[in-house]
Amino acid sequence: MLLVTDYANPEMAEQLIKDGLEFIDAAGNAFINLGFLKIISKGNPPKSRVSLASPRLFRASGLKVVFALLSQPDLVFGSFREIATGSGVSLGTAAVIMDELKSRLYLIEDGRGTRRLIRKKELFESWVTAYPEQLRPKIFLGRYRGEHGWWHDLALEPNWAQWGGEIAASRFTNYLFPQLVTVYLSAPRLNDFLMSNKLALDKNGNVEILERFWPADVKKASEELVHPFLIYADLMASGSDRNIETAKDIYDRHIARHLRED
């Protein structure tokens, strides 16, 4: 495979060479590896000012699009409108983020316009790093406290509520006993959820509720747990050794295979 692009800046060129991905650009930068011969050229400035990416990819709206593309692999082949719908963002935002994915060399297109994500592992790791700082605070609905064990036998309605964080990891692995209960739900359902489960606002409570930032998927209406990508991100963001250990297990068993290059 050969990547052809308008411009690969020195940092991106270095990363592509490190990854063994051959490329050429319009500025004369290139990496060609024929085995017996290697051609490496980097640092050439663009012939003309290229409109590089806006810094939105790892902010809130961009993180929604990246999550959707990684968790729904076929979405990358869809129209911008389908990507916007699947990500829960506007059509204009979807178009901007897709352009930035291309400019940062996470997305390539062949001559027929068929798109493909590359460097998915790096993209996922960047998403995990940015999520707790850029998106999670914006969807945080509050901390609460309920009666002891209120959640043990509770069945959520996946169309509008799902378990996340430690409780999702516990049910996913049968290993971790949750100390913090995390629920992702549709914001309009918040008051009903609080009343029906007798949850009271408490800034030091052991229940956190966040707004679900992805559209409901009727095809997965039976799934009470959020996607493993999000479980992993929540566990890693906690900083807890026991959570990080469980996160690594989830990564090895349920995530790594989805990030392999096609």
Structure write-up:
Helix 3 packs across helix 4, helix 6 packs across helix 9 and helix 8 packs antiparallel against helix 9. Strands 8-9-11-7-10 form a 5-stranded mixed sheet. The N and C termini lie close together (11 Å). The radius of gyration is 21 Å and the shape is elongated. The chain folds into 2 domains: 126 residues, Arc Repressor Mutant, subunit A (Orthogonal Bundle), CATH 1.10.10.10; 128 residues, no CATH class. It is α+β, with helices and mostly antiparallel strands and 262 residues long. Helices cover 40% and strands 17% of the residues. About 2% of the residues have low confidence. Strand 5 and strand 6 form a beta hairpin. It has 9 helices and 11 strands.
Secondary structure blueprint with pairings:
Elements: E1 2-5, H1 10-19, E2 22-25, E3 30-33, E4 38-41, H2 60-71, H3 80-87, H4 91-103, E5 107-109, E6 115-117, H5 120-139, E7 140-145, E8 161-164, H6 165-173, E9 181-185, H7 190-196, E10 200-201, E11 207-211, H8 228-238, H9 241-255
Parallel strand pairs: 1-2, 9-11
Antiparallel strand pairs: 2-3, 3-4, 5-6, 7-10, 7-11, 8-9
Helix pairs in contact: 2-3, 2-5, 3-4, 5-8, 6-8, 6-9, 8-9
